[in-house]
Structures are given as structure tokens and as C-alpha cells.
Specification:
With 273 residues, the chain is mainly beta. Helix content is 13%, strand content 58%. The chain has helices at residues 2-24, 31-43; strands spanning 51-63, 68-75, 78-83, 87-100, 110-113, 116-124, 131-141, 152-165, 168-182, 190-201, 207-212, 214-217, 222-237, 240-253, 261-271.
Length: 273
């Protein structure tokens, strides 16, 4: 696992170098680069009219007294559906596959699925003055293996609002989930997720994103606050447009035994309409 960390760190530096060079030549974009930038800006919008399939690799360290690590692979298809003339319904699904090392001496590691979270956003097709928004329900499905699952069904509201213009995207995504069924011996779920984000997209489709994926667990009265910095770029491989992203994070706040830092690598398959 340490070798993976070193490799990801090297890739992050390699991707950041051409991005900085592109920023110096921002005014010299070609039409092809502008097309890539359009896709990059759509990716910065969680409710864009764009089918995408991100596969997100998250490495986090150091859990528990044994400083164990965890690799979480999130499969996150985003599918927009047309609802009448003026509206889209965007479905965003997160299916986690988790491999965790030993966090307590002698306890061993484990691998399995986590619980699925699925969001539905009803959003206008046309943005007014660059303002984009979406609102709808979020669902929690207890698909996870014991140890990675709260074993509860949950639901609640979700909302996203953002402003785009001049290569900048500034926005906020939030939801709250309450449990309503499941294993009666397990603690209930009452959790708020807050994700403010800002993205700068360059004409060559390189993008820099800063966000926090904050969770407040109202049952345990704890905060988890990872600060993420990610660099991404859109490429075309054959005829398939794809985005590759690399990033790092620091946990400004965490529950006892939680991780302290992490790395992220994302491959996103893009299917523009």
C-alpha cells in the first residue's frame, strides 16, 4: 500500500506541471481545447446534462491505534434524464468497494462493499445568469458488508446550487439522511453532508478544485472534515473523452480513530450528448 502512495504522489506532481504551464498560455486556446474545457466545466457541475462514470480511488491513513489504512473505490455513475421540456432529473449513485488494513493489533483487515447512496436532483435545463440548482431526495441502501455498513435504510433531502462563469465554478452540495428502517440493534442514522467547492477551469481543460466533504454525525456528535485539493484534465483516447484527476487531502477534523490524510485518483468516462 505504501508503494501505491508513492506512485500516486509522483503522478500528482506530473499532472500539476503541465497544468501550470497551460495557465501561462491561457489566451492561446484552440477550438479543440475549448471543447475539452467545455467538458471540464460540465464535470465541475454536479447536475450538468452529461452522462459520466467516475471511478474514484481514495487512499486514507491512519485509522485506529494500529494506524491502519483504507482503500475505497467509489463507482459513481451520473445519468441525466429529460423530464418534459424544461427540466432534467439527474441521478447520482455512489457504490463503495472498500479494502481496509488492520486498525487494531491482531484484528486483521477486511474487504467488501459499503452502503450505496443515491441522489436525485430535479434541475432546470436552462441556467439563468449562470446560476444552476437542483433539489430532490437522497436514499441510503444497506448494501454493505458487516463492518462497512450501518445496516439501515435511510432517506432525506438533497440540494445543489452553483454559479459558473469566466472559467470559475463556485457552489455547494448538501444533504441530510435519517434512517427509517433496518437492524433495530444498530444505532440510527442522522447525518448531514456539506460540500462547498470552487473550481478553476483553464482553456486547455485542466481544472483545479478545492473542496471539503464535511459530515456531521448527529448521533455520535462528531465531525469529519477532509480538505481536498484536486488537479484534473480531459483527454480523448481514441474517440472516448475521459478525465483523469489526482488529489490530496488533510483531515482538519475527525472522530477518534479516524484518518489523518489521504490521496485520490479519479478516472471518469464521459458521454456527451
Amino acid at each position: 500500500m505504501k508503494a501505491c502512495v508513492v506512485a500516486l504522489s509522483g503522478l500528482l506532481a506530473a499532472l500539476a506541471a503541465p497544468a501550470l504551464h497551460a495557465q501561462e498560455n491561457e489566451t492561446a486556446a484552440t477550438p479543440a481545447e475549448s471543447s475539452g474545457a467545455d467538458l471540464a466545466e460540465q464535470l465541475a457541475n454536479p447536475v450538468a446534462n452529461l452522462i459520466s462514470v467516475p471511478i474514484q480511488f481514495n487512499y486514507d491513513c491512519c485509522y485506529g491505534p494500529a494506524d491502519g489504512d483504507r482503500l475505497t473505490v467509489n463507482i459513481q455513475p451520473v445519468i441525466p434524464l429529460s423530464v418534459g421540456k424544461d427540466w432534467n432529473l439527474i441521478t447520482r449513485t455512489i457504490l463503495p468497494v472498500i479494502s481496509q488494513g488492520e486498525t487494531v493489533e491482531g484484528a486483521g483487515g477486511m474487504t467488501g462493499l459499503g452502503d450505496v447512496v443515491q441522489s436525485f436532483f430535479l434541475s432546470p435545463k436552462e441556467a439563468k445568469n449562470g446560476l444552476v440548482w437542483g433539489v430532490g431526495p437522497v436514499m441510503l441502501y444497506p448494501t454493505g458488508k458487516t463492518g462497512f455498513s450501518g445496516e439501515k435504510w435511510g432517506a432525506g433531502p438533497t440540494v445543489v446550487v452553483l454559479k459558473q462563469g469566466g472559467g470559475m465554478t463556485l457552489g455547494l452540495l448538501a444533504n441530510h439522511i435519517w434512517s427509517y428502517a433496518g437492524d433495530s440493534h444498530r444505532p440510527g442514522v442522522s447525518a448531514t453532508f456539506i460540500q462547498p467547492f470552487v473550481t478553476k477551469t483553464l482553456p486547455d481543460s485542466t481544472a483545479f478544485t478545492l473542496n471539503t466533504e464535511t459530515t456531521r454525525d448527529w448521533k455520535s456528535k462528531t465531525w469529519t472534515v477532509p480538505l481536498n485539493f484536486v488537479v484534473s484534465h480531459v483527454y480523448t483516447i481514441g474517440k472516448q473523452p475521459m478525465s483523469f484527476a489526482l488529489g490530496a487531502r488533510y483531515y482538519a477534523e475527525r472522530p477518534a480513530g479516524g484518518p489523518t490524510w489521504g490521496l485520490r485518483f479519479v478516472t471518469t468516462f464521459l458521454f456527451p450528448k
